Amino acid sequence: MPKEIILPEGTPPPLAPYVPATKADNIVYVSGILPLDENNDVVHVGDAAAQTRHVLETIKHILSNAGGSLKDVTFNHIFLRDWADYPAINQVYAEYFPEERPARYCVQVGLVKPDALIEIASVAHV
Prior knowledge:
Elements lengths: L3 E3 L14 E4 L2 E7 L14 H18 L7 E8 L5 H11 L6 E6 L9 E8 L1
Parallel strand pairs: 4-5
Antiparallel strand pairs: 1-2, 2-3, 3-6, 4-6
Helix pairs in contact: 1-2
């Protein structure tokens, strides 16, 4: 099965040996996206809602480059640093997925960047 590497312009360089997304058989696998700028610095430090918005906008950009959109997302893997941020994250998340929401799970973890409050990885069928 051939795969296509998705490297959208403007996304930060990966922090490890991975790519922002791969596409195979019309399925796009988006790597865990952190709230990072083009220099891999965390944006909106301390603001879970703004970080969530940044992450979802990045995922939207990646999916667009793969020929899809957020409407094509079938599963999200959500990693958050603190359960106290869960309501703010969900409020923003609901704006991006108002109807026909994808399946998801959400777990509390330590993230690779200490100031990051959220990371989301997605699967989309385009």
